[in-house]
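[Automated response] Your request has been received and processed.

Submitted sequence:
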Amino acid sequence: MRLVVGIFVFFLVEAGAILGPTVLKDGYDNYQEVQRLRAREFVPPPGAWIRPWLVTKANIMIAAEQPIQWHPTDFLFGPCSPDNTRQLPSRDFREAIIYSCGELASIQWDHALECAMTDECNLPEVAKDEIRSVIAVLNAAFSDAGFVLPVTE
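Generated structure:
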């Protein structure tokens, strides 16, 4: 039995000696690539992701069937916080995002009672129309901000 264990340990040590440097080098290279991709020049501009994020959350609110869907996020903090909106590139786009965050937060609070039960949300069509109008403002501001190239024929 000792002979079998000894041979097994010998093969483990040999495999570790052969594969160890390769595994460590690949791991280090992958770590360097992750750090390079996290560098500031590879981060998308804030305006490129905040509008799709807001539209996604607004669409979740429109289709809400439960209270957790009516409150998918807090529109006063996170991407809507003043620290994040201050980074947005153009003044008009920044104002549209700030307006949209405030409106979505206001709509959440104004219609909170309609979606307070744990088993259903009875949202009036007025609330859904208000959310759709906020999405329209976001879409107009995004197209005017210059993130999308104009379509030419």
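Summary generated for your ticket: The helical segments are 2-37, 46-62, 67-70, 82-85, 91-110, 125-144. The mean pLDDT is 81.
If you did not submit this request, please reply to this message.
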